Amino acid sequence: PPSTNATPNRSSGSTTNHHTLCITPLKTMKFLSGIVAALTVGSASAFSVNTPAVQPKTALKSAVASEWDISSIGRSVRIEGSSREHWEFPDPNQEIVQVGIDSSGRPVEALAELWIGPDWTPMKVKAYTEDGMMRPIQTLIGTRNKAAAIDINNTGPGDFPLNAAACYANPGLVAQRADLLTANQGRYIEGGAVHSVNFDATVDQVQVLLYTDTRQLNAQVELLNGPNNFKQKYEVFTNNGLLNSLYVVFNTPGSGNVVRVTNLAPLEFPCKAFIASV
User: Fold this and answer.
1) Rounded CA gap, 263 and 44, in Å?
2) Parallel, antiparallel or unpaired: strands 15-20 and 84-89
3) Residue 239 pLDDT
4) Where does the chain have alpha helices with state H?
5) Do 254 and 225 form a contact (C-beta atoms < 8 A)?
6) Contact 86, 145 (CB under 8 A)
7) Closest CA to 10 of 100, 102, 116
8) Residues 202-235: pLDDT tens digits?
9) pLDDT number for residue 29
10) How far is Cα 177 from Cα 33, in angstroms, rounded to an integer?
11) Angle, nearest 10°, between helix axes 59-67 and 171-179?
12) Is 255 helix (H, G, I), strand (E, B) or coil?
């Protein structure tokens, strides 16, 4: 199990437990080379209609789903409302961190931050889910190959605790994120624009990847079920959408599920979205 030490909380004088994890090194060159190749696509193809890639169901799907179980990620930590925990990742040879958050079925509101150095927070991800058991929070966060920490803050009320776990992602998840770049052509989304993709009842999980060409990324990804009835939502801000792209996985039980991406940035900061079933 990870070692646990007490360190002062950044925002207050209280102490916060952190966990140091050391896993075997991973290679993310496939993902980076895929992004570079995608960025070379001409503007004409960039505006092409995005058709979600629906892959056939296989035994692999259950294996992928089990990889996001909190118990599979690592030792889970219960975080009460209005409190926080953080995990340290000191290995500069590894880059991708897997973060999972769930609950006993209650709503979850959380803020995940990437900390590098004493006072630099290059990425923030706000997350909400209506049911933390049916639709847990599942994301991958890059550390920019630096010694970093992931802070998870339960921004919900005191009677809505959550369970969280974080560790270096295994090679299968890193490859899954990289393969998404070839699942379809992606969709170029200008600042202020909205893009939606529908999924039928045969799809159990949907993966979304957002990135930019090194410009800032400020976007919102929602899972809807019914007109403007969002069940789950992520909002990301990072100063470099290439080094810190947003990758999330939605559980999509039932029918009528829609993934909606909104670029919250000004017109001068477009992003590209890749959306496909798992």
Assistant:
1) 20
2) parallel
3) 96
4) 29-39, 43-46, 59-67, 70-73, 171-179
5) yes
6) no
7) 116
8) 999 999 999 999 999 999 999 999 888 999 999 9
9) 53
10) 12
11) 110
12) coil
Which is nearest to 75 in space by CA: 145, 120, 20?
20
Q: Are 276 and 53 in contact (CB under 8 A)?
A: yes
Longest dimension (CA), the chain: 53
Q: Give the model's pLDDT for residue 21.
A: 44
Which tokens is 144 given?
Answer: 């920019």
**Cα 227 to Cα 230, 235, 258, distances in angstroms:** 8, 20, 10
Cβ 45 vs Cβ 185: under 8 Å:
yes
Segment (H or E) for 137: strand 137-142
Q: How far apart are CA 224 and CA 230, in angstroms?
A: 4
3-state DSSP assignment of residue 184: coil
pTM beyond 0.90, yes or no = no
The confidence score (pLDDT) of residue 226 equals 87
Q: Which residues of the chain have pLDDT under 50?
A: 1-9, 11-27, 40-51, 54-62
pLDDT at 22: 41
Task: Kindly give, in sequence order, each residue whose CB lies less than 8 Å from that of residue 122, ignoring residues fewer than 6 positions away.
Answer: 114, 116, 144, 238, 239, 240, 243, 244
Q: Is 177 helix (H, G, I), strand (E, B) or coil?
A: helix
